[in-house]
Amino acid sequence: MHYLMPGGGGVRGLAAGTTATGLIAVNGDVERSVLSLSKTRLFRDIRVAAFGDAALANGDVPRQGSTRASLITDAGLGLRMSHCIGQTSFVTSFDLPVIVSRPRLAVNERAQVFAFRWVVSATGGFVTGDRSAPGSRSASSCR
Predict the structure, then answer these.
(1) Contact in structure between 106 and 75 (CB atoms under 8 Å)
(2) pLDDT beneath 70: ranges in the chain
(3) Which of 56, 70, 55 minimizes the C-alpha distance to 10?
(4) Where are the domains of the chain?
(5) Which residues have C-beta within 8 Å of that of residue 96, sequence separation ≥ 6?
(6) Whole-angstrom Cα distance, residue 22 to residue 7?
(7) Which of 26, 80, 113, 115 has the greatest number of beta carbons closer than 10 A?
């Protein structure tokens, strides 16, 4: 299974075993709600997303034969599904990082920069300890 644990550099297209001792990263998402079901609890909101990640890192990231920090990027599309079970709210994500600048380090390792890849993740109170204020748009309000 291709699971992305929240935190770290958050470059969704990289394989889980990719390592670095130094890292600076930027992640961006644009989301739009396509279905909102405030009365249901299992699927409260479904959103489509476009994302891009970039990191400057050392370790496994530099091109083979180099020891200097190097830039790695990815981009793709995804789905975000908000859930509420009991008093616990969370969001599951299904992302397709179809562009990865270093394919040898990519999840579903492929030879091409542009290829079908996938990764799932979960975020929310039970995963990250999020305790957002009531009325916020985060996953933590189970009302």
Answers:
(1) no
(2) 1-2, 5-8, 125-143
(3) 55
(4) 23-128
(5) 76, 77, 78, 116, 117, 118
(6) 14
(7) 80
